[in-house]
Amino acid sequence: MHRVQYSSPMELMEEAICGDGKPGCGSEHVKPFTPEKAKEIIMSLEQPAVFCNMVFDWPAQHWTAEHLSEVLPGKRIRFRMGLKSTDTAPQFETACSYAEATLEEFLTWNCGQPHISGPFRDYDHSKFWAYADYKYFVNLFEDKTDIFQDVMWSDFGFPGRNGRESTLWIGSLGAHTPCHLDSYGCNLVFQVQGRKRWHLFPPEDTPFLYPTRIPYEESSVFSKVNVVNPDLKRFPQFRKARRHMVTLSPGQVLFVPRHWWHYVESIDPVTVSVNSWIELEEDHQARVEEAITRTLVCALKTAEDPHNTRAWLNPTEVEETSHEVNCRYLNGAVSAFFDHYRTSKVIEMQALRTNGEELNVHNHMEVGQTGRQNLTLETVKQEAASPFGPDLVPVIQSPEEAPSERGGIFESDGKDFVGKDGEHFGKLHNTKRQRRMSRSENAIVEQVASHGTTAPSQTLISTDDLLDCLVNPQVTRIVAQLLIQGRNL
Q1: From the centroid of its chain, how far is CA 91?
Q2: Which CA distances in Å does 479 have to 164, 329, 485?
Q3: What does residue 4 show for φ and ψ, rounded to 5 degrees?
Q4: What would the mean pLDDT of 32-58 be, rounded to a whole number?
Q5: CB 439, CB 430: distance < 8 Å
């Protein structure tokens, strides 16, 4: 199918996105991408992008909060209650309160009526937001499994994937998720009702996001920065983070690549979203890294205060945290890593060794990635065109975050991620690791230099300070590789 080529990503953003995400913008009720093509894009693209005109026939497009309240009458759901504040500190889940309520009670409260009774009686609507986040379909619709078919991720090239592998998010104005990255997979997000604003940052900017594992949640690395109201005195390197923003409207599907940081906020009175995390080859090592993180965090934090896990353990984490259990979890993750590659038809175990040298896990993990990159480069060469167009809109860097104003470490205008021609696209992939390391190293050097003229802080190093170093994503990646090397010898 011929795609209209726009002169710039900004023009594309302004002209291409249909406000309601419904067919009619030249689609003629024909989906712009086949499932095979959609999956090819998802598995190769390393920039966030919005799919349009792909879900107009999904029954789930009618899943407004009102509709769901009728589908789930009397079903009590846990809502996270947060303050509509302008504080510079992130509002983590450990700092929020919670209310068990039905969707009907939520909608009544959300009308802003004074003197309301029920679960929300202690929460002034003008001061609080409510968020039923991360609700697995299998738990919500346990006795209504037919509804799983209303979500059809098979249209994106994943046969059999539907609501069973999805989660539901329902929020009021101001409800948000603190800035974080997901350790596993990539993400597809279908916006059903209302609009959400996404703030995204590339993986290479991780040092500028000040990563932390407190509060601890498996597969979530949080940022210490409130990205919508940052404390630049405390987190000066955040100025260099390259913010990409998009407002997701009903009927649109956002693709979030692996390890992209994101902060998500509801900007309409009621929002409903459905998402699914897509498993990737890299997840096998990531599970080892997460098991290392879990073991270290739980060991140190329980030793510090064995009776107050709620202060550092995210409410979503309900499993036992004993050292014995976590060690079994770690051993299981390492064994699963080897089991996968022993039976994998895609990557043979011989690829783990090069010229008789010891196991190099990093090179091994690059094998799967390089294969995807070469496929992408070949595809771009064959088509001689970007996949972007009216039905696939790139999420671009915000103008106010342009590198020329930011004084960044290397020159870039955000177009490196677009891959409009084969040569440029290949250059991105070949230099990605080097650029990430360069940015990380420079971030450390500049942080030290920026404090070089002042006396060192007299504040005692806390357990959390130690953990920020020990379970930094870069460190756990190295530890995971060493563990796997030792197990293979």
Answers
A1: 17
A2: 34, 16, 10
A3: -70, 130
A4: 97
A5: no
Show the tokens assigned to 57: 């026939």
Helix (H, G, I), strand (E, B), or coil: what is residue 129? strand
- Number of CB atoms found within 10 A of residue 471's CB: 25
Sheet hosting strand 220-223, strand order edge to edge:
211-217, 220-223, 176-182, 261-266, 196-201, 244-248
- Does the pTM surpass 0.85? The reply is no
Angle at 468 between CA 412 and CA 428, to 5 degrees: 20
Q: Are strands 128-136 and 49-51 parallel, antiparallel or unpaired?
A: unpaired
Cβ neighbours of residue 195 closer than 8 Å, sequence gap 6 or more: 247, 248, 249, 250, 266, 267, 268, 271
CA distance 471 to 278: 24
Strands, E assignment, 86-218: 97-101, 128-136, 167-172, 176-182, 186-193, 196-201, 211-217
CB burial of 72-85 (b: ≥16 within 10 Å; e: otherwise) equals beebebebbbbbee
Q: How far apart are CA 437 and CA 236, in angstroms?
A: 19
Q: Tell me which residue of 146, 135, 198 sits closest to 168, measured CA to CA.
A: 135
Residues paired with 222 in a beta bridge: 180, 212
Q: Would you say 67 and 272 are in contact if contact means Cβ atoms under 8 Å apart?
A: no
pLDDT value, residue 375: 42
Confidence of residue 489 (pLDDT cuts 50, 70, 90): low
Cβ contacts of residue 303 below 8 Å, gap of 6+?
none
Alpha-carbon gap, residue 242 to 71, rounded angstroms? 41
* Contact criterion met (CB below 8 Å) for 298 and 323: yes
Distance CA 207, CA 205 (A): 6
pLDDT at 423: 34
